[in-house]
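Hi P.,

Sorry for the delay on this. The queue was packed all week, but I finally got your sequence through. Input first:
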Amino acid sequence: QVQVAESGGGLVQPGGSLRLSCTTSGSFFNINNMGWYRQAPGKERELVASIMNGDKIDYVDSVKGRFTISRADAKNTVYLQMNSLKPEDTAVYFCKVNWTKRGLEFWGQGTLVTVSS
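Then the structure:
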């Protein structure tokens, strides 16, 4: 029914920037509720940023002022702009999209962000 895919990960030096994309396809088109998660090596999965009801945005404290979540004009896509990257940002980043009306959640496959020293 619904597919979710992340892209934009890669290798970047500390202080650099990356923009991740989360795109849905299938039966779900308008992203109003979603979250960006990450899981670092040896660490638990962490919620990084979220959108609720299309406009309520929250960030985990460790990325405030550095990361920005936004929704594209094509509302099946959400971005995570990551600036001033730090080695501790190294993780696999996942997109989780909520189909709120049906009470369903869909996860992407993850995209690896590596911030080297």
